[in-house]
Amino acid sequence: MRRAHHPEAGEITLTGVMAALSDPIRVGLVRVLADGRERGWGELQAPVAKSTLSHHLRVLRDAGLTRTRQEGTRCFVVLRREDVQARLPGLLQAVLAAAEEDDIGRQVSVKGAERPA
């Protein structure tokens, strides 16, 4: 399998990040990953087809918001919080706070985790 491209921290752009965060599913994925834990793609639940979830994860990766690691046939993803903070200070915190307040991305969760009421 081909190696995934991850932009360097200096290549992360405001417009790229904002475009990636223009979809509620992607905002939900960022909310789930904001706990700092690396997650297997199979752990992530969203009300979309697996191929669509894969697309959303690729958009986040291409924008520099996440890092994907492959181990055998499994893929794992983690939020690049430090890189985004270094390049765009305060942006991620503001997005996460607004998403929480406006309840954006609530439909995304981790398998086995209790969904918020």
What is the approximate shape?
A: globular
Computed over alpha carbons, the radius of gyration is: 13 Å
What would CATH call the class?
Mainly Alpha
Q: What does the main sheet amount to?
A: 3 strands, antiparallel
**Secondary-structure-derived class:** alpha+beta
Helix content: 40-55%
Total beta strand runs: 5
Task: Specify the number of helices.
Answer: 5
Instruction: List segments where confidence is low: pLDDT < 50 over at least 5 consecutive residues.
Output: none
**What's the helix-strand series?**
HHEEHEEHHE
What does this structure look like?
It comes from Bailinhaonella thermotolerans. Residues 6-103 form the HTH arsR-type domain. GO terms for molecular function: DNA binding; DNA-binding transcription factor activity. Keywords: DNA-binding, Transcription, Transcription regulation. 42% of the residues lie in helices and 15% in strands. It has 117 residues and is an alpha+beta fold. The protein has a single domain, classed as Orthogonal Bundle (Arc Repressor Mutant, subunit A), CATH 1.10.10. A hairpin with a 2-residue loop joins strand 3 and strand 4 (74-79). The longest helix has 13 residues, at 50-62. It starts with 13 loop residues before the first helix and ends in a 7-residue tail after the last strand.
